[in-house]
Design goal:
Two copies of one chain form a homodimer. With 194 residues, chain A is α+β, with helices and mostly antiparallel strands. The first copy, chain A, is 35% helix and 17% strand. The termini of chain A are far apart. β5 of chain A pairs parallel with β1 of chain B, so a sheet runs across the interface.
Chain lengths: 194, 194
Amino acid sequence: MKKTAQTDHPILDVIAERWSPRAFDPERVLSEVDVAPLFEAARWSASSNNSQPWRFVYAFRGEPAFEALMAAAVEGNQRWIQRASVLAYSVAKLQAEDGSHLWHNRHDTGMALAHLLLQATAAGYAVHPFGGFDSDKVIAAAGIPDGFEPCTGVAIGYPGDPTLLGERGALRELAERSRRPVAEFAFHGHWPAS
Amino acid sequence: MKKTAQTDHPILDVIAERWSPRAFDPERVLSEVDVAPLFEAARWSASSNNSQPWRFVYAFRGEPAFEALMAAAVEGNQRWIQRASVLAYSVAKLQAEDGSHLWHNRHDTGMALAHLLLQATAAGYAVHPFGGFDSDKVIAAAGIPDGFEPCTGVAIGYPGDPTLLGERGALRELAERSRRPVAEFAFHGHWPAS
């Protein structure tokens, strides 16, 4: 299902077409070969001093690791993640050698994830990032070492039938996408007087 | 100048072609019409609960605001930013109503910036994000209110002659791009034993 953004200025098709569906096709599956280009796209993202602070841990539906990673998500998210073919978490290296916190690395990990989302969109996959998960559970399930912190979950699969989500879920799935206009977040020269 | 990434898997052209040049053409300029699609691309990025925590403040070379924003960058960056046509900073809403810090918003602002970088690349612009700036100076120059923090500077313009950067700068500009391989940051099922 396409929900192309109604843009005020022309933008790249893949950016206009990326959105966050919850309806995944429970019959179709992705493989290592399918996800490799997604991580490759993340790989070529920009980062401060080329530090590449992003990591990903992922599993395919049917694997014990998928169940463990899914159990770290909040219950409301598990309901739709269960039909995704791949579940991944982005992870940022957040602790420097001297123990200080590298907050900027969340930002750079976000840039890498944005590449992954666009590459998945271009491949025709449904891809949905989510913040609703228990960080400690992800750390335990994936064996994430000290110095690294989970950033974002991301469910990937083939698009499915919105009615799988129930009546209310299907309505939400079909609702038009919305964003604040550019004038409300991009300021020429100076922040606007409030 | 193109420095297309040598990828191990096929990815979107625009992702393979994005890089961070320092050589901008000092003669050619961008206008509001040129930058509008860049912010439009950022607009349609994903964010936690569609909170859209990103903001941007920008100025065109020749404007007093450009000088003020440029003076906030570290000296080494000013040397190449001075030839860019547009200087912007991404800004994240980091303080919630209850005063708590929304660290995740740096991540979402990074995703929006990634869209901007790709849209600029698609338009044929040179675009270079940088972290080397004095946050307090950006806040003062742009009048950024409490609750918001600058994330990343970004210089935008038309590609220029690398020799503008001097001999050492030109060598760096022409060097091949490098990244750690996917196997070193994307882990199937579980973090690797160290």
